[in-house]
Amino acid sequence: MSIRIGVIGTGWIGEQHVHRLTSTVSGAEVAAVSDIDLDRAAEVAEAAGARRVDSAEKLIADSEVDAVVIASWGPVHAEQVLACVEAGKPVFCEKPLTTDAADARRIMDAEQAFGRRLVQVGFMRRYDAGYRRLKEVLDSGAVGKPLMAHCVHRNKSIREHYTTEMAARDTAVHEVDALRWLLGEEFVSAQTVLPRKTTKRFPHLQDPQIFLFETASGARVDVEVFVNCQYGYDIQCEIVGEEGAVRLPDPAAPAVRRAGRSSVPVLPEFGDRFEAAFDVELQEWVDRIRNGEALTGPSAWDGYAATMVTDAAVQSLHSGAIIPIDMGDRPELYA
Ligand SMILES: NC(=O)C1=CN([C@@H]2O[C@H](COP(=O)(O)OP(=O)(O)OC[C@H]3O[C@@H](n4cnc5c(N)ncnc54)[C@H](O)[C@@H]3O)[C@@H](O)[C@H]2O)C=CC1
Ligand SMILES: O=C1[C@@H](O)[C@H](O)[C@@H](O)[C@H](O)[C@H]1O
Predict the structure, then answer these.
(1) I need a surface site. Which of 116, 275, 288, 316 has the fewest CB within 10 A?
(2) Can you give the residue ranges of the Gfo/Idh/MocA-like oxidoreductase N-terminal domain (predicted)?
């Protein structure tokens, strides 16, 4: 039996996920889609052979939808995730889980009242082969105790609706989750440092930005976010330990030697860079639901922790102050 999935938000990644669930992931079918842009939803529904439903609320309540994928804009995730939990339906929510930590706490309260995990957050780097190899090296102890991490997150360019706060909430949030996962500890402070702005940006935007984080054990993480770097999608991560350093591998690509030069391509977009990771994360989510197994992917706690950190980074945006972060205790359900 296939899981009947409803997809909310049929923009860039929603359409990709509908296609992925229809063509690549096994054991799933897209039963319904919805978007506030009704025409867009109708187009995506038709291409997938799914029904268009007029609102997110109706899609969540639909008796022919077993599980929900949310790919709408960040600020509306909280109410949609809560409605799924209240309906007792598993929900895969694209990052960020919420744009406000209080909303993430409401989600954890609802999930704990339900009694088991229903929420998974779309932090797909945990499913990327390179990041998984990096974690294996760290966990083996080969580079010793981690002291520092240096991360780079560059997009070729970004759409006009992207705001200065999204550098933390939408972009650096990936590194926040990946580094919490890699280092196995929480962040305790955040600071945002602003270099000179690139002229190759929309006028409203502060780009690039540098985020400085400290972990509970005193390790330091720096993240450069530069979303109009012009040359491609470039993700770098190096972790320096007491006995060595380990670096995220670049995607494999043949080096071309020609006219006195050797060159490898830089991928243009995040869809190309993390395509396989998106496939694996959704396949594992579907498999666990089909087999009646507990969800083990990034949880509501992970979504909450990431939002606490990015809230602090946004708070530091104008003052440059170091903002302490107190996550509170991790509930038993997320141990
Ligand atoms: N894991 C990853 O690497 C990526 C994650 N994302 C995340 O996915 C989400 C969507 O991003 P994009 O597809 O790039 O945005 P987008 O702007 O292309 O699409 C968002 C869609 O949501 C719809 N929408 C907004 N409010 C809605 C509501 N209340 N009910 C139903 N539909 C609603 C919009 O009409 C739009 O079609 C964001 O949270 C973003 O951070 C996006 C790209 C990559
Ligand atoms: O999640 C993503 C986008 O929402 C975000 O806007 C981009 O900066 C990231 O590179 C991409 O992975």
Answers:
(1) 116
(2) 3-123
- For 218-244, letters b (16+ CB in 10 Å) and e give ebebbbbbbbbbeeebbbebebbbeee
List ligand 2's pocket residues with C-beta within 6 A. 155, 170-171, 174, 227, 270
Q: Which atom of ligand 2 is nearest to the CA of 162?
A: 6
Residue 308 CB–ligand 1 contact under 6 Å: no
The residue type at 74: G
Domain boundaries, the chain: 3-122+276-299, 126-269+306-334
Mind listing the pLDDT tens digit for each residue in 256-289? 999 999 999 999 888 889 999 999 999 999 999 9
Tokens standing for residue 120: 């998974």
**Two tokens at 50?**
């799914």
The CA distance from 77 to 21, in Å, is: 20
| ipTM of the complex as predicted | 0.99
CA distances from 258 to 9, 261, 265, 267, 287 (A): 45, 5, 13, 20, 46
Instruction: Give the helix/strand (H/E) hosting 18.
Output: helix 12-23
Instruction: Please indicate whether residue 122, judged by its CB atom, sits closer than 6 Å to ligand 1.
Output: yes
Q: How many Å lie between the centroid of ligand 1 and the Cα of residue 14?
A: 7
The domain defined by 3-122+276-299 carries CATH number 3.40.50.720: yes
Task: Respond yes or no on whether the N-terminal peptide bond of residue 96 is cis (omega within 30° of 0).
Answer: yes
Q: How far is the CA of 324 from the centre of ligand 2 (A)?
A: 25
Q: What integer is the mean pLDDT of 191-204?
A: 96
Q: Ligand 1 center to residue 35 CA distance, Å?
A: 10
Measured CA to CA, the distance from residue 249 to residue 79 in angstroms comes to: 38
Ligand 1 atom having least distance to the Cα of 278: 1
Distance between CA atoms of 279 and 124, rounded to whole angstroms?
9
* Cα 171 to middle of ligand 2, angstroms: 5
Q: Which of the listed CATH numbers 3.30.420.40, 3.30.360.10, 3.30.70.270, 3.30.1330.90 matches domain 126-269+306-334? A: 3.30.360.10
